[in-house]
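stage 2 :: seqdesign
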C-alpha cells in the first residue's frame, strides 16, 4: 500500500553554490559515500543536486518536511549493481521507518546541466 509520495526539482546551481561556500553544507547533507561517489563524476554538481532532490522528495513523502530537524546525511542515496538508486536510512529516519512499518522506498532521479529532480514513493 502506498502511504506517501514526494517529488522535488532543484536548480543544480543552488546546490553547487551551497557546497562552494565551504561552510559544512556538503558534510551535513551528504554521507561520506555520497560525497566520494559525486566527486568521481564528470558532472558532480548534477549528481549532488539529484541526491539533494531525492532527500527532499523523501521528506515530502513522509509528510515531515525539513521542519523535522533531522540531518539529511541520514538519508543516503546508494546504487545497486545495476545502477538503480535506492535510499538507505540511518539514525532517526531508520527508526521512523521501523515504527511506521515502511517496507519499500522507491526513488527515481533525473538531471541535466541546470536542473535535477527526484520522485519518492513509500510503501507499507
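stage 2 :: out
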Amino acid at each position: 500500500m502506498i502511504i506517501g509520495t514526494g517529488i522535488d526539482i532543484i536548480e543544480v546551481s543552488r546546490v553547487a553554490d551551497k557546497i562552494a561556500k565551504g561552510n559544512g553544507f556538503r558534510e551535513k547533507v551528504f554521507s561520506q559515500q555520497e560525497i566520494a561517489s559525486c566527486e568521481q563524476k564528470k558532472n558532480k554538481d548534477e549528481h549532488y543536486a539529484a541526491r539533494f532532490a531525492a532527500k527532499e522528495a523523501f521528506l515530502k513523502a513522509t509528510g515531515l518536511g525539513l521542519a523535522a530537524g533531522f540531518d539529511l546525511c541520514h538519508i543516503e542515496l546508494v546504487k545497486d549493481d545495476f545502477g538503480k538508486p535506492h535510499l538507505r536510512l540511518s539514525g532517526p529516519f531508520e527508526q521512523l521507518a521501523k515504527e511506521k512499518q515502511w517496507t519499500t522506498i522507491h526513488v527515481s532521479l533525473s538531471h541535466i546541466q541546470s536542473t535535477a529532480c527526484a520522485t519518492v514513493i513509500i510503501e507499507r
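stage 3 :: structure notes
- The chain has one domain: 2-123.
- The radius of gyration is 14 Å.
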